[in-house]
Design goal:
The protein has 264 residues and is an all-alpha fold. It has 9 helices and no strands.
Length: 264
């Protein structure tokens, strides 16, 4: 990315789970077979196991070593993963509805697009976990900064509605989060919500002033004033024939979208 870029359950039957391949060979073969046959494998060594689409509903995996395991799209609803080590595991799109993840290690775990309604995550370690697109994530397991960073990720993918949702969640947790207001302003301008963008930009400026952050305040003021200028230019018919939408979009791409590197 350049200097102006945004740097700002279905489960198959267990019999279908493969026992071959480099990732499966890393696991204890007897333990993996035990899991497949019984769904009971507490304290098992399942490191690197390939369990894509596996039906593990209600499985007992308490204290299991699942580091680096691939559980993408697996059905883990009501499974017990208390104390399990899921460091760097992949649970992309997994169904974790009502799963027990108390004191589980989810460091660098990929939980994108997973379903977490009713999941118990008390004491779980979620450092650097990827949760963009996850649904049902309890609000207490993520900080305002986490949600802000997820918004940045979505904005970088040009999913501005998703970015706005995460910035709004961050603001709900921390109403004085100036950076979240400013980044939401930029995302809103991409969605042609210019009134909302200007309001957020002004709020960000006020919060930066209260925090004695003159550089960031100047940035927020510049964003707001430039957006207002482009809007006026469009209303006055000075958009060079391209229309106000194109004029604003060019402004956001050129000026507004460099906010994150300065604010993180």
């Amino acid at each position: 990315m350049g200097a102006w870029s945004w740097a700002i359950g279905w489960g198959l039957g267990l019999g279908m789970v493969g026992l071959t391949g480099a990732s499966s060979l890393a696991a204890n073969a007897e333990h993996l077979q035990q899991l497949i046959n019984t769904r009971q494998c507490p304290q098992c060594d399942l490191t690197g196991a390939s369990l894509v689409y596996a039906n593990l509903a209600g499985a007992d995996l308490r204290g299991a070593d699942l580091r680096g395991a691939n559980l993408s799209r697996a059905n883990l609803s009501q499974a017990s993963l208390t104390g399990a080590d899921l460091t760097s595991a992949t649970l992309f799109g997994a169904n974790l509805t009502s799963a027990q993840l108390v004191n589980a290690n989810l460091t660098s775990t990929d939980l994108r697009e997973s379903v977490l309604f009713g999941a118990d995550l008390r004491g779980a370690v979620m450092t650097r976990a990827l949760v963009v697109g996850a649904v049902g994530l309890p609000p207490e397991v993520a900080t305002a900064r986490d949600r802000f960073n997820w918004g940045v990720y979505e904005a970088d993918r040009r999913n501005y509605s998703g970015a706005i949702a995460y910035y709004s969640q961050a603001i709900s947790q921390d109403p004085n989060f100036a950076e979240a207001y400013l980044n939401r302003a930029v995302a809103r301008s991409h969605m042609a919500d210019y009134g909302g963008a200007i309001a957020d930009g002004k709020l960000a400026s006020q919060l930066f002033a209260q925090a004695d952050q003159p550089n960031q305040q100047q940035l927020a003021d510049k964003f707001t004033s430039e957006l207002e200028r482009y809007l006026k230019k469009g209303r006055d018919g000075q958009s060079d024939g391209n229309g106000i939408g194109i004029s604003i979009l060019n402004f956001v791409r050129g000026v507004g979208s460099f906010l994150v590197p300065l604010l993180l």
